Amino acid sequence: MRQNQPLFPARLHHLCLSVREHERSLAFYRDALGLAPAPLPGTNAWVLSGGQRTLILEAGPPAQLRYAAYAVGDERQLDALRERLRHNDITPEASPSPLLREGAFAARDPDGGLVAFGLPRAVPGPADRLPGRLQHVVKRSAQIERITAFYRDGLGFELSDTVLEGPHQQRAAFLRSDHEHHSFAVFHATEPAFDHFSLEANSWNDLRDWADHFAGLATPLFWGPGRHGPGNNLFLMVRDPEGNAVEVSAEIETITDGRAPGVWQHNERTLNLWGGSWIRS
Ligand SMILES: [Fe+2]
Questions:
Q1: Distance 22 CA to ligand 1 centre (A)
Q2: How far apart are CA 266 and CA 69, in angstroms?
Q3: Least crowded by CB within 10 Å, which of 112, 140, 176, 200?
Q4: What is the CA(212)–ligand 1 centre distance, in A?
Q5: CB environment 166-199: b (16+ within 10 A), e (fewer)
Q6: Each residue's pLDDT tens digit, 9-27
Q7: CATH of the domain at 104
Q8: Cα–Cα nearest to 81, from 51, 103, 97
Q9: 208 and 90, same structural domain?
Q10: Residue ranges with CB less than 5 Å from ion ligand 1
Q11: Which domain holds residue 240?
């Protein structure tokens, strides 16, 4: 834990998504991401576990992020983080996650989204056949400045990069909770929504294997392979049966302490340094 910065380090541990057609989604996440589903007793929810990636799916409205959960290192860090929230007039709420130990809590962002912090009940499992640990989550918001301020000033994430349209209009913000470029990001939109989550693989070769794996399932890549500007990570993306974007990334930028936030212009090459797609007619 850093002095006066109790969030550091924290890592994205799991997400809870609501899905309308849970059978299709359970099958997708089992086959495409290698996640074994187990029902949560007494609920309409399932825990999908891999070695280094975990999701919870709830039956409900499609394509909604119910919450994101970050793991911190120990009780002392968790206590300090709770105190920071109170100091910043953020009232900690009960943790919604069954995967975090007693003492976990959650904070509600200006769009009503929940982000939980705690200590995981289970230790990470063995390596997955295709490497990809859950690494970041991205939301859309119509009030991107407020969301950025909440995560940065309220919770204690650090701003790595901002994307602007023209001199001032914020289009994206990338924030980190450890040395990796972003564990949370927010994109400008006309209404709040879940955008995507990302699995961080070990190398570029892993992305080749993931792409071959998706091809074997006839799951098309809808974007990539490419390289993002902010984060400098190699990436490809597929969609789950309800349209949620799933990213597989590699070689995300690591940040040394004291690096000033970067500023990018909102254009195609910022989103993908390798350029946009070309479709043969
Ligand atoms: Fe991403």
A1: 24
A2: 29
A3: 112
A4: 20
A5: eeeebbbbbbbbbebbbbbbbbbeeebebbbbbb
A6: 999 999 999 999 999 999 9
A7: 3.10.180.10
A8: 103
A9: no
A10: 198, 247
A11: 133-271
Going from the Cα of 272 to the center of ligand 1, the distance in angstroms, rounded, reads 11
Q: Note if the pTM is more than 0.90.
A: yes
Indicate whether 34 belongs to any domain: yes
Q: Is residue 179 part of a domain?
A: yes
**Is residue 45 domain-resident?**
yes
pLDDT in tens, 29-78: 999 999 999 999 999 999 999 999 999 999 999 999 999 999 999 999 99
CA of residue 171 to ligand 1 center, whole Å = 14
User: How many angstroms separate the alpha carbon of residue 87 from the centre of ligand 1?
Assistant: 31
Does residue 158 lie in a domain region?
yes
CA-based nearest residue to 106, from 93, 91, 120, 118: 93
What is the CA(196)–ligand 1 centre distance, in A? Answer: 7
The last residue of a domain, from among 67, 87, 118: 118
Q: Check whether residue 86 and residue 41 sit in a common domain.
A: yes
